[in-house]
Amino acid sequence: MMSPPEFLPRPDGAALAYRRVAGTPPGIVFLAGLRSDMTGTKADYLDAYCRERGRAYVRFDYFGHGASSGDFLDGTVGRWAADAIAVLDQLTEGPQILVGSSLGGWIMLLAALARRDRIHALVGIAAAPDATEDLLLPRLDAAQRHELFTSGSVTLPSEYDPAGYTYRLGLIEDGRRHLVMRAPIALDCPVRLVHGLRDASVPWQTSLRLAERLTGDDATLTLVKDGDHRLSRPPDLERLAAILDALVGV
């Protein structure tokens, strides 16, 4: 049975649930996707990967996600990025590899830009930078846009929840203050991006555009022909392990 998570207090009284594995640097920090948490397949796999290799590892739940406090509807990209930076500052030591899945790929970039000196490398799995502006808003028809901008929220169908997902206008407005794909992204660390060609949630072209915007030359994009958005099948996880092994020189 998995032990209960520990909690990192935040200045506003919130608490972030996390689990940590002691080990050698560079450590690995996993950043989950929107409405995902640290109990997912990739997060669990990385826990086992790090334990087997004696590598430091931290996984956590953003504000309003999983076992952390707060209401998801009160969350924003800026707040979740601040959560990731707090985890870096208070729960890790030395260089870190950030592994960001979906929206976690956006959070990964924001955290790396804020703490460049702490980043050994970045790994984006179906990364979704600027998702609120480039993916969420274009999904809305005229009626849904009217509902969002007049009532302040809108509920959209989701393959992951029969009740759908509700989004608040504040999430969109905050997202606009944290866009990263409108200009060169000043990161020179190694970056490895993986994206499935059958991803129905985030187009694979998003990762291509991200690679183009990075200022550093050490960036690669792997396209998985039969890969979906989750990229959590055994071959996908083995690919992730191989990427991490190469980044740490195993």
Describe this structure in words.
This protein has helices at 41-53, 77-91, 103-114, 131-136, 142-151, 169-176, 205-213, 234-248, and strands at residues 6-9, 15-21, 24-31, 55-60, 96-101, 119-125, 153-158, 161-168, 191-196, 219-224. The protein has 250 residues and is of the alpha/beta class. It has one domain: Rossmann fold. The strands form two sheets. The protein has an eight-stranded mixed β-sheet with strand order 1-2-4-3-5-6-9-10, with helices on both faces. It has a two-stranded antiparallel ribbon with strand order 7-8. Strand 9, helix 7 and strand 10 (219-224) form a beta-alpha-beta unit. The chain is globular, with a radius of gyration of 17 Å. It starts with 5 loop residues before the first strand and ends with a helix. The model has no long low-confidence stretch (mean pLDDT 97).
List keywords for this structure.
Rossmann fold, alpha/beta, 10 strands, 250 residues, single chain, eight-stranded mixed sheet, 8 helices, two-stranded antiparallel sheet
Sheet having the most strands:
8 strands, mixed
Helix content: 25-40%
Overall geometry comes to globular
Distance between the termini: 30 Å
- Given this structure, which CATH class is correct? Alpha Beta
Question: Gyration radius, to the nearest Å?
Answer: 17 Å
- Quickly give the CATH architecture: 3-Layer(aba) Sandwich
Number of helices: 8
Mean pLDDT over the full residue set: 97
State the strand order across the main sheet: 1-2-4-3-5-6-9-10
Summarize the structure.
The protein is an alpha/beta fold and 250 residues long. Helices cover 35% and strands 26% of the residues.
